[in-house]
């Protein structure tokens, strides 16, 4: 690609071989002709055929870049490494399982165009979730508890589709599972965030990497940590003399 990208689409994957090609095709369909973009896939040391699928797609998709972890490190690390490798000033993220709809990225860009310079995060809000009943129930209560503790005024922080400024993201404190707390962390840094209704789809292939129990156990510890970060935050405007 000769034109510098204005948007980098970062997609973390672990064992999603059957979901990669359809999702790449949907991303290119949604963005070609709309904005100069690149796609940065981060393979979190998959042990299926994901990496080979990505290598094959590079031959037919000039926007595609692929980086790979040398050890399995989790989704937050994959997102962060993808953002660090990205060349555009703004980032869109998608889960690699195909449940997020790339057709929503133009909607997020449109919301950004209407927003002000202080809004650095446009977070997807799955208003019609297609997960199992138990998963929706667990998520509902997790969101309620999180909202009460963090006061982040965000109905759905677990949605993988987001649009944010690269520099603002890289300035946030990094920890495992931080991708689930981006609205609160952005607000802690002094930025505004907006929730945007987006589509949500059934997983058609592969298996989820999480279950309700491990989400809950990790979530309790993380919530306490993020709440502590918020109480310890200090933001001081500066002026140059």
UniProtKB/TrEMBL annotation:
Coiled-coil residue spans: none
- One Pfam family, short name please? Glycos_transf_2
Keyword Lyase appears in the UniProt entry: no
Where does the source fall among the domains of life?
Answer: Bacteria
Keyword check for Lipid biosynthesis: no
Domain Glycosyltransferase 2-like: from-to ranges: 8-169
Q: Which SUPFAM superfamilies match?
A: Nucleotide-diphospho-sugar transferases
UniProt keyword annotations, A-Z: Cell membrane, Glycosyltransferase, Lipopolysaccharide biosynthesis, Membrane, Transferase, Transmembrane, Transmembrane helix
Q: Which PANTHER family match?
A: UNDECAPRENYL-PHOSPHATE 4-DEOXY-4-FORMAMIDO-L-ARABINOSE TRANSFERASE, UNDECAPRENYL-PHOSPHATE 4-DEOXY-4-FORMAMIDO-L-ARABINOSE TRANSFERASE-RELATED
Official protein name in the record: Glycosyltransferase family 2 protein
């Amino acid at each position: 690609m000769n034109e510098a990208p204005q948007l980098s689409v970062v997609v973390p994957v672990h064992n999603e071989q059957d979901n990669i090609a359809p999702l790449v095709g949907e991303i290119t369909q949604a963005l070609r002709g709309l904005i100069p973009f690149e796609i940065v896939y981060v393979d979190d040391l998959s042990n299926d055929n994901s990496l080979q699928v990505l290598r094959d797609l590079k031959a037919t998709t000039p926007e595609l870049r692929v980086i790979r972890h040398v050890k399995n490190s989790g989704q937050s690390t994959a997102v962060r490494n993808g953002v660090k490798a990205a060349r555009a000033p703004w980032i869109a993220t998608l889960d690699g399982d195909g449940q997020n709809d790339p057709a929503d990225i133009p909607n997020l860009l449109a919301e950004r165009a209407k927003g002000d310079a202080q809004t650095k995060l446009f977070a997807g809000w799955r208003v019609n979730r297609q997960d199992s009943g138990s998963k929706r129930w667990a998520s509902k209560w997790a969101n309620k508890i999180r909202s009460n503790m963090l006061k982040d005024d965000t109905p759905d922080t677990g949605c993988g589709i987001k649009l944010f400024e690269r520099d603002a993201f890289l300035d946030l404190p990094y920890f495992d599972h931080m991708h689930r707390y981006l609205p609160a962390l952005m607000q802690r840094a002094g930025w505004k965030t907006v929730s945007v209704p987006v589509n949500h789809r059934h997983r058609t292939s592969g298996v989820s990497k999480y279950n309700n129990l491990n989400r809950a156990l990790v979530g309790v510890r993380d919530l306490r940590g993020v709440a502590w970060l918020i109480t310890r935050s200090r933001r001081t405007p500066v002026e140059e003399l």
